[in-house]
Amino acid sequence: MSPITVVEGRRLPLTNLDKVLYPETGTTKGEVVHYCTTTAEPLLAHLHDRPLSFLRYPDGPDGQRFFTKNVPPGTPSWVKTCEVPHSTSGPTRQALLQDLPSLVWAANLVVELHTPQWTCRTPGTADRLVLDLDPGDPATVVECCVAAQWLHERLAADGLEVFAKTSGSKGLHLVVPIEPTPSERTTAYARTLAVEAARALPDLVVHKMAKALRPGKVFIDFSQNAAAKTTAVAYTLRARATPTVSAPVTWDEIADCDDPEQLSFLFGEIGPRIERYGDLHAPLLDPDRARPLP
């Protein structure tokens, strides 16, 4: 039988806790679940009211991986859900992680956590704008940092605050709190920024997705602002070779980055970072920090 744990009054079976998910570091499923519980406060804050999409990797990053938006079979009845409109296949019902038992349940499934730029209260109306900076080999996060600083200044010129985090993979995510705005308009504005950046930094940045254009450059993906798209949430573990995390970072760290390893954080480093900095993305949760798009 699977061990049963009680989390805030909810009984949860936890399975295969000794299973090694990340062979390079020997990280077990139990350690993954523990990370989610110890990082629960900021993680749940950024997940609150946002319908969840799962990238599941139950046998580790080298095993089968599959992406799902629908509520998984066997989901406990006490996990909150919401109906989400879908433009082509009709509405879907997706999970919401609103409390610690729900987060532990999700962690036991072994998942990356992805959310849209809107909440379940206002589907398709964004309260965040996201720019995903993705480096094409041999470019790295170092080149992303140069592009990020240009975008930071450009967004500031429009009166917008910008917060940065690692993607947990190779690049960076820039996140901007905005007053509620239709996703179509948010996407159009984000595209304008990407085009401007490519014109200003032609040797560094591309805004088109064509793979032939991307080697050695930073692709600014503005499409994640579309209503149907999602982005890895702050503090989620990623299905990479090692247990890296999408970690909020400071602008000083970005300015000082000259080695990709400086902005690659394993799950064991996140607790000390939170102790040092607090939640660097906490301002995104304050509606008073939101500004209108120009």
From TrEMBL:
Domain DNA ligase D polymerase stretches: 28-280
Ligase listed as a keyword: yes
Alphabetical UniProt keywords: Ligase
Lineage: Bacteria, Bacillati, Actinomycetota, Actinomycetes, Kitasatosporales
NCBIfam families in the record: ligD_pol
CDD domains documented for this protein: MtLigD_Pol_like (cd04863)
A GO term, aspect molecular function: ligase activity
Keyword Transmembrane helix: no
Name this polypeptide is given: ATP-dependent DNA ligase
Protein's organism: Streptomyces lydicus
Pfam families assigned: LigD_Prim-Pol
InterPro entries associated with the record: LigD_pol_dom, MtLigD_Pol-like, NHEJ_LigD
